[in-house]
């Protein structure tokens, strides 16, 4: 097992990706979970991604990346625009050797406070991930959904509906408490689909 840190945890330090890697490396950590493409290359430039990957490799560290929001109901652009951008990001990340991609289907409390029924959020999210199957299969990649305001059960529902070969779980043990879930019980239930995770105490 390799243990790293989420760059979100370091946000108050205003570090660039290279500085995040240095920070983690000096503390004996194995890698960094970064956010989406914008935080790695604002120009979405493959050369910049490859340079960052090479730097991480020189430190013996891993990099994990994210494709962001996978729930069309919460998109701030049209679904087609988001899909087109995400396909580009998935392809670029794959060329950099990053195939296990984090994603989310909620930001906060949409499960409880949103005009659209929550079950519709889940079905639309599964449909969207499923629409990415061609590029995910082509790149040998997978989107691993992190539990935020949603429950572990919700995430597993989307994984099963989208297909476990292209969709997995990025389990955040701290966020299980948002829905009063037992993090140990839910962790064991999600084990077959877990492809990454966050440990919080």
Low-confidence regions: 184-188
Rg (CA only)? 16 Å
Class by alpha and beta content: alpha/beta
Q: Tell the overall outline.
A: globular
Structure, explained:
By secondary structure, the chain is an alpha/beta fold. It has seven helices and seven strands; from the N terminus they run βαβαβαβααβαβαβ. The protein has helices at residues 17-26, 46-58, 79-95, 118-131, 133-139, 152-162, 183-190, and strands spanning 5-6, 31-33, 62-69, 100-104, 142-146, 167-172, 194-198. The longest helix has 17 residues, at 79-95. It starts with a strand and ends with a strand. 33% of the residues are buried. The model is unreliable at 184-188 (pLDDT under 50).
Comma- or semicolon-separated keywords:
alpha/beta, 7 strands, 201 residues, single chain, 7 helices, 7-stranded parallel β-sheet
Give a brief outline of the structure.
The chain is of the alpha/beta class and 201 residues long.
């Amino acid at each position: 097992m390799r243990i790293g840190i989420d760059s979100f945890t370091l946000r108050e330090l205003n570090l660039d990706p290279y500085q995040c890697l240095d920070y983690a490396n000096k503390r004996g950590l194995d890698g960094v979970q970064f956010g989406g493409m914008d935080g790695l290359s604002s120009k979405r430039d493959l050369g910049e991604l490859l340079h960052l990957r090479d730097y991480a490799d020189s430190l013996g560290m891993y990099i994990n990346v994210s494709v962001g929001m996978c729930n069309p109901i919460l998109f701030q652009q049209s679904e087609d625009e988001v899909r087109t951008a995400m396909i580009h990001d998935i392809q670029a990340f794959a060329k950099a050797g990053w195939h296990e991609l984090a994603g989310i289907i909620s930001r906060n409390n949409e499960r409880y406070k949103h005009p659209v029924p929550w079950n519709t959020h889940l079905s639309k999210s599964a449909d969207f991930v499923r629409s990415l199957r061609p590029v995910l299969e082509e790149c040998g990649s997978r989107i691993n959904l992190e539990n935020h305001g949603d429950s572990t059960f919700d995430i597993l529902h989307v994984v099963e509906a989208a297909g476990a070969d292209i969709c997995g779980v990025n389990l955040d043990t701290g966020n299980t408490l948002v829905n009063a879930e037992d993090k140990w019980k839910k962790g064991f239930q999600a084990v077959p689909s877990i492809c990454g995770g966050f440990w919080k105490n």
